[in-house]
Amino acid sequence: MNANPHVLRHKGIRRARRHARGAVRYAAAVCVMLALLFPVFWMLISSLQPSHRLMNLPPTFTLSRESSFANYIKIFSKSVYIRYFINSFITAGGTVLTVLFVSIPAGFSFSRYRFKGRNAVLTGILSVQMFPIVVILISLYTFYLKWNLLNSYLGVILADTTFAMPLAITLMKSFFDTLPRSLDESARIDGAGRLRTLFTILLPLTLPGLVAVGIYTFLQAWDDFLMAMTIMQTNVMKTLPVGLAQSFLGEYAHDYGALMAFSMAGSIPIVLLFVFFQKYMISGLTAGAVKG
Questions:
Q1: Second label for 92, Cα 20 to 30 Å away, from 25, 100, 151, 260?
Q2: Cβ-count burial 228-263 (b if 16+ within 10 Å, e if not)
């Protein structure tokens, strides 16, 4: 039995339209991706150029005969610049460990137990993020001055932990909410206590959530500028963002080539985190977004 030619024509038109819409979506996605990656490309090209060439108008986005790795050699040949990286790794890593150490039992408690004032405590924790950093900066500096916490890793870690903790506790609570309470009941029947239930049964199931909280905290501490600039007073104790701003941005001249090279080097740890942990990051965020 022969098919109706009109039906075949309509099917072909619908198929062509469907392919056209798909092609338009892919083209739009490629354009958005190129627009997002262009600043990174420009920063990479600029890091290989001498500073005077970056001031040319109109700007150029290609390599030239003057392109070299001189800017990278400059930043990695001085021990003080390497020290900025070490300081940032110490403060960011310490902040991640502190936040996880507190947010895991806190999120578990808010998820599994009902006690008087629970909602008020959660609201109070979240309200910390309502205050800008500059509001508490003066009082924090006075407190640190009295307790000899200025110019110390502990001071920066505590300050960064304060602002990362509210969201970390909220995220950990949402991750524990996705786990059925039957797991707790089964562990209790087998004789497991609360801590054993948390660390041996529930915590391994929240691995994507732990990675998500850890990456978020590390990113926030790695990019911190205001707290680190206020607390770290000597050049050898400065973190990467502070050292970046104060080393290459002068009063009368800026070394943009070295600045771009330093920025590229400082972005590599964040990129590597997302490359190696993106699977856990995405699954952790989606798991914490659905309850039940």
A1: 260
A2: bbbbbeeeebbbbbbbbeebbeeeeeebbbbbbbbb
d(CA 62, CA 51): 14
pLDDT in tens, 169-182: 988 888 888 888 88
- Alpha-carbon distances of 245 from 225, 254, 263, rounded to whole Å: 9, 10, 10
Tens-digit pLDDT profile for residues 117-166: 778 888 888 777 777 777 788 888 888 888 888 999 999 999 999 888 98
- Taking the whole predicted model, whether its pTM rises above 0.90 is answered as no
Tokens of 164: 């990362």
- The domain ranges of the chain are 5-47, 70-289
For residues 88 and 222, is the Cβ–Cβ distance under 8 A?
A: yes
